[in-house]
């Protein structure tokens, strides 16, 4: 009876999460919208994080995620050992190695997400808080565009994985070089063998959702930081406009003579220009603090993505090049290679856009109307020097690199992606030469 109640609770919980996810697909953006669309659901399904304190849910969830991870890893390792021991073709062994590299990459990135969960929560709160720039005309368009873009990426990634998972149903596990189970009882107990194959397919499908989860988590962080940085740029561009509004409201609330008006205009101008500039600098400093908090996790991910993607592309390309006929698994391998290449491409593109946005802060401040608005006077010499000092500080801060460079080993930008493709091609040539010189001989 307790098992039925537990199953009913789990079903109701999953149903409510899926319903909320479906409603989010049609919801328009507002300032209370979570920019990290669908992340909790993906992390829960993939085994990364479950937002519940219910011990029964957590116990069942822990069993499922451990079973899915260990079962897939054990089967792939066993088949790799079997293929090497039986002297299978070189491309078959490399296909198994590609699966091992993929599992290693996904689980290592999952470990990094769990380890840096506090930093991810801090970034999520920072992006969803949206406390600044609400009065700016472009801020809503920037943030809503970021949210809708994330939603499209999530839908694409989930759709891709669901299609890939459904295609597993048409694979003959009994004769597969990588997914064959370590036992075969089809002669004595065919139904039991079919049940085991289906259970393994289900566990493998659940584990495969880990790939879009870890990818989307990183992409959401970079995309959210870029959106907030663009809003900060808009606040810098409105410094003089906001200052003039403050001065105008202050002068309208005070009665003064014509002789006093000129002095008060200058006095309030210097007062509010310092406040506006200081608030913008504070927003920039807060952004840099959040960036520094999440940077170790991002650098670890970028380093793993860069080299494992190159290796995966080389292994997958060699396997596909040796195929004489098109099979379902070769199509799956091609789709996976294209997916990881696309993942790396859009991540490097987002990092490049983030770097460009950060550098544009200095340009935005530099091209403001400083020559005509700032005039040195002895009465306001201290204020003049303070504003000049802030100006130099902002220019210097914006020219500092964000250091998303894989701990100094690679500069994870879009230009580096083309270097990655060249690295993958060189690895492919090494594998091809090794096969010609050593394996065939």
UniProtKB/TrEMBL annotation:
GO terms for molecular function: odorant binding; olfactory receptor activity. It is a multi-pass membrane protein. Signal peptide: none annotated. It comes from the Eukaryota. It is found in: Cell membrane. One of its GO terms (biological process) is signal transduction. Keywords: Cell membrane, Membrane, Olfaction, Receptor, Sensory transduction, Transducer, Transmembrane, Transmembrane helix. One of its GO terms (cellular component) is plasma membrane. The keyword Cell membrane applies. The chain crosses the membrane at residues 60-80, 153-171, 302-321, 333-354. PANTHER family: ODORANT RECEPTOR, ODORANT RECEPTOR 19A-RELATED. Belongs to the insect chemoreceptor superfamily. Heteromeric odorant receptor channel (TC 1.A.69) family. This is Odorant receptor. It comes from Culex quinquefasciatus (Southern house mosquito).
């Amino acid at each position: 009876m307790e098992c039925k109640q537990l199953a009913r609770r789990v079903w109701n919980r999953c149903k409510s999460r899926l319903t909320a996810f479906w409603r989010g697909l049609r919801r328009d953006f507002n300032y209370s919208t979570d920019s990290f669309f669908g992340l909790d659901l993906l992390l829960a399904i993939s085994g990364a994080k479950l937002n519940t304190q219910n011990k029964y849910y957590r116990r069942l969830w822990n069993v499922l995620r451990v079973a899915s991870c260990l079962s897939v890893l054990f089967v792939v390792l066993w088949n790799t050992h079997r293929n090497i021991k039986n002297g299978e073709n070189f491309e078959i062994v490399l296909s198994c190695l590609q699966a091992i590299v993929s599992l290693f990459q996904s689980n290592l990135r999952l470990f990094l997400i769990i380890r840096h969960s506090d930093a991810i929560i801090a970034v999520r709160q920072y992006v969803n808080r949206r406390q600044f720039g609400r009065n700016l005309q472009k801020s809503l368009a920037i943030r809503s565009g970021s949210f809708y873009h994330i939603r499209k990426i999530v839908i694409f990634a989930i759709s891709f994985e669901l299609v890939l998972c459904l295609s597993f149903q048409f694979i003959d596990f009994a004769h597969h070089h990588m997914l064959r189970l370590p036992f075969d009882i089809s002669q004595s107990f065919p139904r039991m063998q079919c049940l085991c194959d289906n259970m393994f397919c289900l566990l493998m499908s659940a584990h495969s959702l880990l790939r879009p989860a870890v990818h989307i988590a990183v992409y959401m962080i970079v995309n959210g930081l870029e959106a907030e940085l663009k809003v900060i740029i808009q606040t810098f561009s409105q410094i003089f406009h906001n200052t003039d509004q403050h001065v105008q409201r202050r002068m309208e609330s005070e009665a003064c003579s014509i002789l006093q008006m000129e002095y008060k205009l200058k006095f309030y101008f210097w007062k509010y220009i310092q406040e506006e500039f200081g608030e913008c600098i504070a927003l920039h400093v807060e952004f840099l603090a959040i960036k520094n908090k999440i940077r170790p996790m991002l650098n670890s991910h970028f380093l793993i993505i860069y080299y494992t993607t190159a290796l995966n592309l080389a292994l997958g390309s060699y396997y596909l090049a040796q195929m004489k006929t098109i099979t379902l698994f070769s199509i799956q391998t091609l789709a996976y290679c294209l997916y990881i290449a696309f993942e790396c491409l859009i991540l490097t593109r987002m990092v490049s856009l983030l770097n460009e946005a950060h550098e544009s802060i200095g340009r935005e401040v530099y091209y403001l109307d400083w020559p005509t608005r700032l005039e040195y006077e002895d009465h306001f010499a201290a204020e003049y020097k303070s504003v000049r000092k802030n100006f130099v500080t902002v220019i210097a801060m914006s020219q500092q690199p964000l250091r998303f460079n894989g701990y100094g080993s690679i500069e994870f930008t879009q230009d580096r992606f083309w270097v990655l493709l060249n690295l993958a091609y060189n690895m492919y040539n090494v594998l091809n030469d090794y096969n010609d010189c050593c394996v065939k001989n």
